[in-house]
Amino acid sequence: MCTSIIYTAGDYYFGRNLDLEVDLGQKIVITPRNKTLEFREIPNLEHHYAIIGMSIIRDDYPLYFDGINEKGVGMAGLNFNGPAHYFPVQQGKDNIASFELVPYILASASSVNEAKKLLANANIANLNFSDKLQAAPLHWIVADKTGASITVESTIEGLKVYDNPVGVLTNNPEFPRQLVNLSNYRGISPTAPENTIAPEVDLPVYSRGFGSHFLPGGMDSESRFVKATFAKMHTPVGNSEVENITNYFHILQSVEQQKGLDEIAPNTYEYTIYSDGSNLSKGIFYYRTYENSQISSVDMHKENLETSELITYRVQNQQEINYQN
């Protein structure tokens, strides 16, 4: 399970929590402009936009969980087990495997509108990367540096592309139902509510934060969708890049999954392995991990983006504590 957001604070910040039960050995991976991207059913891309994000690498191929490109477009794939449905290769369609979709979009789209055009004739083909790496059931969020975002879902009904007015994505159910469910929480507010149940009775507000009394706090995807939407819609804009990225990570932290709270099998627990976020205008990738709460960053523009080999950075997992005495 996962949560992805785009946060508006002058610049736009895009990224996600990755919630799994096992660390997959991910790295920060930069795919430079001249690294050939190979696809199973469509032409390879020898020249394209540079990409940075969190990924594993297999056979010199970046399998991105999420990332951004140099034009300020971000994309993340989130678990969508159940509704997700991929199709056989279809003649006359742009057949793209699920593991290819993030690099395919980020390599060529300079905006959400361009991503929509690339998806207009797309078919998410039921192709595995290998026998050991089967196609994961996913749906996707795409966002850009104007603040626009869309949700992409391939279900039994076909490929659907939805405008995403809240800039949030979690997991099941399908995106339109997540939006409808938000209506159940229209009254949630950062301010104390008026007494409308019994106006003539003196009903004390016995705690601060009473306006959020009915805000859901579970680990389930519907609860995280509501809580992340509430948090990002009311998080203030900072006065600096450091303030903004700190605020951004606090939004994701509001829906973080701690170890021991979400059992998916006997003695096996899902947790937030990492949180990341990128400044879509500056191309700076930030992240923190469950083991290391310090924010680290990699600036894609400090690398040679004209090369043809993947550039990788090891994830910093060791906790850094500032001992003051």
UniProtKB/TrEMBL annotation:
Catalytic function, reaction form: cholate + taurine = taurocholate + H2O; taurodeoxycholate + H2O = deoxycholate + taurine
Keyword Hydrolase among record annotations: yes
Annotated Choloylglycine hydrolase/NAAA C-terminal domain residues: 2-313
Xref: InterPro entries: CBAH (IPR047711), CBAH/NAAA_C (IPR029132), Ntn_hydrolases_N (IPR029055), Peptidase_C59 (IPR052193)
Associated pathway: Lipid metabolism; bile acid biosynthesis
Parts of the chain that traverse the membrane: none
Enzyme Commission number, as recorded: 3.5.1.24
GO MF term list: hydrolase activity
Record carries keyword Ribonucleoprotein: no
Family: Belongs to the peptidase C59 family.
Protein's UniProt name: choloylglycine hydrolase
Organism of derivation: Limosilactobacillus caviae
